[in-house]
Design a protein that fits this description.
592 residues; alpha/beta; 12-stranded parallel beta sheet; 8-stranded parallel beta sheet; 28 strands
Length: 592
């Protein structure tokens, strides 16, 4: 895009044309081993490999257009045909930096800066040289170690299409950045000290991508964002109290794609709601983070207000893969959770126990893979009772629940759910419902400071028996018969269990339930692979529980001062030590 190498196609966005070219190159084996990856922070990116022969061909075609700068490079080393330069500041000197001015048609610079006393002057010289490189179209300068960098050169680069100054330590950007009328992409990722964007951002009429991942210190966004008609990427959006500042309705008509984080959603004004804040048209968002509450305000009517805002929000969920919600004070999830999109994914079932007469039903969140819920103290249900649970979250793999003390049982038909993490106090219904999740392989519970029994009503681990589920009620309602349907206990699939900072925890299961299980015990074919119990000072090992677990790979128990209270428990731990080996058996409380 920065070099105008993507042709214009009528009625097609340049990004879509670029993706078509990418696929064509991949199909013709110019590129290979394409793979979608997930980076830290749940951002997605695609990688590929280039065959050595294709790489050699590319180098032959570009000939001397690309150059890697090193120390003592001078204008004599730099050919007039050079267009693209890369380098690292700690490998350069002032002479080599000044030589950049001798290249008349330089279009791209990619430079890493790792600052120290020895290269401070080189960095300063490089930043001052930039304002003379007027032909630049692409500039990527990593400023991760430069405090309050001088950015006065920015306004001189009128031909710049892409500017990447990620990791910078600046608090503000110069107003002159808004003079770059050809700028298409501005990357400010991980500029953690950045507090505001320039007031005249609306002047960047060709801006298509504004990357603000990791800009957690951003407090102000200017009004007029609605005028950036071509904007496709806006990874972070912050809302302020004052009506004069940018409100959510500013981005209502923008076709945002990819990842979007909205901060201080509870500050949306009534006037903004009246103007319209619907996100129903933003059907190409893959990752959505909604943070409702700011740290500097408390409102007694938060629950009512959050319900009002969420109802107006109307998020499109058709393509969401990751959803995070924090600080929402409503009792139920926002109403758009129960709405279908204009072209919803549909689930067709031949199982009359769930859907009568072989009907199709709408699937909610058909692509959602990860769901994070945090600080939602009033939330009671993940799925409304009016929505058939079999049609919700069909692709959900990871669920994190942090400080949602009233959340009830999870629906039993989350057949793709493999990992659950619970932080903070939770209801008995929620923790016991883990036994209904047939695909669960990893469970982590932390900071349940008042709970003495982890699973007060669930059956003990690793027994291959069936437990009744709510699906039997669905069957009964739909077919008017008394047949009973059960699902296998997820504890039969569980491989990893982690328990951390449960200060009053003494047992995993109620003793009575374990006795009932032992009376009907059958041969166990699978067991728990990994168990970690950390900082649970009152936890005590019991032979009945640990024999049930059938631990096969690793055991870590740290910070449990009352762990062993009987000779039988001591003997059991020593047998596990022999079975697992010392490297995978970490239990300091077991004395030699």
């Amino acid at each position: 895009m920065a070099h105008d190498l993507i042709p214009t196609v009528e009625n097609k966005e340049v990004e879509d044309v670029g993706n078509t070219i990418w696929k064509e190159l991949y199909w013709r084996s110019f590129l290979q081993d394409e793979e979608e990856n997930e980076a830290v922070g749940d951002s997605f990116y695609t990688t590929c490999m280039m065959h050595d022969l294709i790489h050699d061909l590319a180098q032959y075609v570009i000939k001397d257009e690309c150059y890697t700068m090193k120390a003592n490079s001078s204008s004599d080393d730099l050919g007039q045909q050079i267009r693209h330069v890369t380098g690292k500041v700690h490998e350069l000197d002032i002479i080599s930096v000044r030589s950049l001015k001798k290249i008349p048609g330089l279009q791209s610079i990619i430079l890493d800066i790792y600052i120290n006393e020895d290269i401070y002057n080189v960095t300063k010289e490089f930043l001052s040289v930039l304002k003379e490189l007027l032909s630049l179209r692409f500039l990527e300068v990593s400023l991760r170690d430069v405090q309050d960098p001088d950015l006065s050169w920015v306004g001189y680069l009128q031909h710049l299409r892409c500017l990447d100054i990620s990791h910078g330590k600046m608090k503000t950007l110069p107003d002159s950045i808004c003079d770059l009328l050809n700028l298409q992409s501005l990357k400010l990722n991980d500029c953690s000290k950045l507090e505001s964007l320039p007031r005249n951002m609306r002047d960047l009429i060709n801006l298509r991508h504004l990357y603000l991942e990791g800009c957690h210190g951003l407090k102000y966004m200017p009004r007029g964002m609605r005028q950036l008609k071509h904007l496709k990427t806006l990874s972070f959006f912050v809302i302020r109290k004052e009506e004069k500042d940018c409100q959510l309705d500013e981005i209502k008509e923008l076709d945002i794609c990819g990842s979007l984080t909205i901060e201080n959603l509870g500050r949306v004004s009534d006037a903004s709601i009246a103007r319209g804040i619907s996100m129903a048209k933003k059907s190409r968002i893959i990752k959505l983070v909604l943070n409702w509450r700011s740290n500097d305000e408390v409102d007694d009517n938060e629950s009512i207000r959050h319900d009002k805002i969420s109802e107006a929000l109307e998020v499109s969920t058709a393509r969401l893969k990751i959803l995070r919600m924090s600080g929402y004070k409503g009792v139920n999830l926002p109403k758009w959770v129960g709405k279908s999109s204009s072209s919803p994914t549909r689930l067709k079932s031949n199982d009359n126990s769930a859907i009568k007469d072989d009907k199709e039903m709408i699937v909610l969140f058909p692509l959602l893979e990860k769901l994070d819920l945090s600080n939602m103290e009033n939330l009671r249900e993940l799925v409304s009772p009016t929505i058939p649970s079999i049609g919700a979250f069909t692709n959900l793999c990871t669920l994190d629940i942090y400080y949602c003390p009233k959340l009830g049982a999870l629906p039993p038909h989350l057949k793709s759910l493999k990992s659950v993490s619970i932080l903070g106090e939770c209801s008995d219904e929620l923790i016991n419902s883990m036994s209904n999740l047939s695909a669960l392989t990893s469970l982590s519970v932390q900071k349940m400071k008042e709970r003495s029994v982890l699973f007060p009503g669930a059956k003990a681990l690793m027994f291959d028996d069936e437990i009744p589920s709510s699906s039997s009620q669905i069957l009964e309602d739909n077919n008017n018969n008394e047949a009973q349907v059960g699902v296998h206990s997820t504890f039969n699939s569980l491989q990893s269990l982690e328990i951390v900072w449960c200060l009053k925890l003494r047992r995993l299961f109620n003793e009575g339930l374990i006795m009932q299980q032992n009376q009907g015990e059958t041969e166990r074919t699978r067991g728990l692979s990994n168990l970690s119990i950390l900082s649970c000072p009152e936890f005590m090992i019991t032979v009945e529980e640990f024999e049930n677990l059938n631990i096969s790979n690793s055991l870590r128990i740290l910070g449990c001062s009352t762990l062993v209270s009987s000779k039988e428990g001591d003997a059991l731990l020593r047998s596990l030590q022999t079975k697992l080996g010392r490297q995978k058996f970490i239990v300091p409380a077991l004395k030699e």
